[in-house]
Amino acid sequence: MAEMTHALNATNLADILERVLDKGIVIAGDIKIQIADVDLLTIKIRLLVASVDKAMEMGINWWQEDSFLSSKAREKELMEQQEALDARLEKLETLNKPL
After folding, report:
1. Over the stretch 2-11, which tens digit does the pLDDT of each residue have?
2. Per residue in 19-70, pLDDT tens?
3. Nearest Cα residue to 27 out of 48, 42, 43
């Protein structure tokens, strides 16, 4: 009987996780440290738990632009760096041409 309860609990947990990922959930909070009405530190914490599809549906796709998480973004970043270096090299070569 204990095994059936465990299986039911696992199914319920899977259902809850599926619903959370499908609908999304936002947890928000602020931490503020003040002394004599002077703000010393403010930390805003926002956590979104959702599936990738749901996040993209909401317009959230920052991971696609992060070069540490996306090979396409990394390739784009490297191409931009290469173009900047080529432009600098061309400028230096132009400045160093003999008259």
Report:
1. 455 555 566 7
2. 877 888 777 788 899 998 888 999 988 888 888 888 888 888 887 888 888 8
3. 48
Answer for the pair 41, 32: CB distance below 8 angstroms, yes or no.
yes
Dihedral over alpha carbons 69, 75, 79, 85 (to 10 degrees): 60
Record the pTM: 0.43
C-alpha angle 48-54-59 in degrees, rounded to nearest 5: 80
DSSP class of residue 62 equals G
Domain map (residue ranges) of the chain: 2-60, 69-99
Three-state DSSP at 98 gives coil
Q: Of 53, 57, 29, 56, give the one whose Cα is nearest residue 43.
A: 29
